[in-house]
Every structure is written in C-alpha cells, then in structure tokens.
Specification:
This protein has about 260 residues and is mostly helical. Helix content is about 80%, strand content about 0%. The protein has 16 helices and no strands.
C-alpha cells in the first residue's frame, strides 16, 4: 500500500486517459482514507475535478470532507467543478443544488446559497426545490428584485401563479418594515411589466399589489393605479371593484366607469 501511494504521482504522469487516472486516484484514496484523511480528500478532489458530473464520486467526496470538517474546502472544489461546467449549465444543476445546500446548511452562507439557486432557475425556472429555497433566502436577504423576477420566470414556466409563494414574499416584506414593503411592491410591479404573461395571470397580481398599497402602505394613488390595471385586464371584477370602493377616493367612480365600458 505504501508503494502504491508513493508511485501515485509517477503513475498519474504516465496515465494517458481519464479512466486510468481516476482508477489511480480512487485506489490512493481508498488506501489513505483510514490513515491520512487529508490525503484521501485530496485524492478524491483530484478525481472529482476530472469528472465533475460523477454524482457517486461527488457524494463520496462530500461525505469524507464533511466528516472531517472540510466544508470550506469542499465549497471551493464545487466552485472549481462548476466553473468547468460553465458551458453545460443544465447538466450542472444537481451539483449546483449540492453547492447551495452546502453553503446554506454548513457554511451559513445565505448569499452564496441564493446565488446558486438563482443560477439554477436561470437555466430551469420550473425547478421547484430551487424556487422554494430562493423565495425564503431572497426574503431573508431583502433581495426583492431578484425574488420578483425569479417568481415571475417560475410562473411563466409552470403556466400558473403560485399564490402561496407570493404570500410568503409579501409577508416577508411587510414583516421587514415599510422600506422593504415599498421595495417589494416596486420590484413586483417592475417584474410584472417586463414579463410576458397571460392577462389571467397578471390581473390578480395587479389586484394583489393594489391591496398591498392600500392595506400596508396607505398609498391610495398606487392602490388605485394597481386596481385599475387589474380591472382593465379582466378577471374577478366584482371583487376588485369592491376593493376600489373601499378606498373611498374620488377617482373610484371614474375608474369603475372605465372598467365597465
């Protein structure tokens, strides 16, 4: 065994293909695992970077690295592997999930985890696990623009509006205070305006914004504008007209008349 480890570098230099190099590194890692974990981690790291799409090798490296408190080192390895897969973003999604989980669960790096989840969503906006975590993390970090755009991309991909996710985002903003609520309202309005969604999807979101402006910001003008946009697109007009009447503003009669034309 000692001889195998000693000859590793020479054998790697002579190896002419990736499978041979992987076999050499795996053999060395197996030998080193019990007597020199640091060397075993280094061997598995080198092997993984040769074939970063190998999920079994990635899991083996992860388990060994985490067993020896090497989460930061593992995160750097994941970063190198993701860089190597830059032109294969869809295939890299499982590794990005692993990197995101590592950042969030082991490194307390919410920003890093969010960046990974947003990268996943840029490739596959329908990814449910990524959007679920992105909503939570973006809310925690007050990344309202990123959150609004990711949500609307997701809605476009799944062809429906997920009210539960919008409820979570809105609650996070309102709980964070007036400034966060204003920023969330602006971010959602901008995202609605720049995404091509059906009228049936957009109208309820404008009505939602109207209620947010009315109930949490006390901004009658913005509420009226949002309800008007909802009414012009159709949908649950009776309910939204009632919302407008609750505002008690002079503009309501004019807007109602226009909406019913």
């Amino acid at each position: 065994n000692d001889r195998v480890v000693e000859l590793k570098a020479a054998r790697l230099a002579e190896a002419g293909d990736v499978p041979t190099k992987l076999a050499i590194l795996r053999e060395a890692a197996a030998i080193n695992r019990g007597r020199d974990p640091e060397a075993a981690i280094a061997d598995l790291t080198a092997a993984f970077l040769l074939t970063p799409l190998d999920a079994l090798l990635q899991a083996e490296l992860r388990d060994l690295a985490l067993a020896h408190d090497r989460a930061p080192q593992l995160a750097r390895t994941y970063g190198q592997a993701l860089d190597a897969l830059a032109d294969r973003p869809r295939e890299a999604i499982p590794l990005r999930h692993a990197a995101a989980a590592l950042a969030e669960d082991k490194l307390a790096d919410k920003s890093g985890a969010l960046a990974h989840y947003l990268a996943i969503l840029a490739t596959d906006p329908a990814d449910r696990r990524a959007i679920d975590r992105a909503v939570v993390l973006a809310g925690d970090l007050s990344e309202w623009n990123a959150l609004a755009n990711a949500l609307l991309d997701h809605f476009a991909a799944i062809e429906r509006v997920d009210d539960g996710k919008l409820d979570y985002a809105e609650t996070a903003a309102v709980t964070s205070g007036a400034s966060a609520t204003e920023h969330w309202a602006r971010a959602l309005a901008d995202a609605i305006a720049t995404h091509e969604l059906s009228a049936g999807m957009v109208a309820p979101m404008w009505a939602r914004l109207g209620r947010l402006h009315r109930d949490h910001r006390g901004d009658v003008v913005a509420a009226v504008t949002s309800f008007r946009r909802a009414l012009e697109l159709g949908g649950d007009r009776a309910s939204w007209l009632a919302d407008l009447v609750e505002l008690g503003c002079g503009a309501s009669t004019f807007i109602i008349a226009r909406a019913l034309q």
